[in-house]
Write a structure and sequence with these properties.
Structural class: mainly beta
Distance between the termini: 35 Å
Helix content: 10-25%
Number of domains: 1
Order of helices and strands: EEEEEEHE
Largest sheet: 5 strands, mixed
Radius of gyration: 14 Å
Number of helices: 1
Shape: elongated
């Protein structure tokens, strides 16, 4: 069984594989993950599930790997953390 929308009581459907998620911390460090974007066919709510191990911004080649994904807003989500 897939994830379920609490509001609509229907199973979510996979809308996109390899959806990028970048988690940016207050100090400027970041971490990038890839997962699958799922959505509710009734209300349109979306979540990203099955996130990868991730790569850190200090790793070699981080910008080269993440920059192309940032260019496609429909395949990229940025999380800004003020912690």
């Amino acid at each position: 069984m897939n994830a379920v929308c609490v509001k609509c009581s229907v199973e979510l459907r996979c809308e996109k594989n390899s959806h990028g998620v970048e988690q940016v911390h207050r100090g400027g460090s970041a971490r990038f993950f890839s997962g699958d974007r799922w959505g509710c066919p009734k209300c349109g709510a979306q979540v990203v599930l099955g996130l990868s191990r991730g790569i850190d911004s200090y790793e070699y080649g981080y910008e080269d790997r993440v920059a192309p994904v940032r260019e496609h807003p429909d395949s990229y989500t940025a999380i800004r953390e003020d912690v």
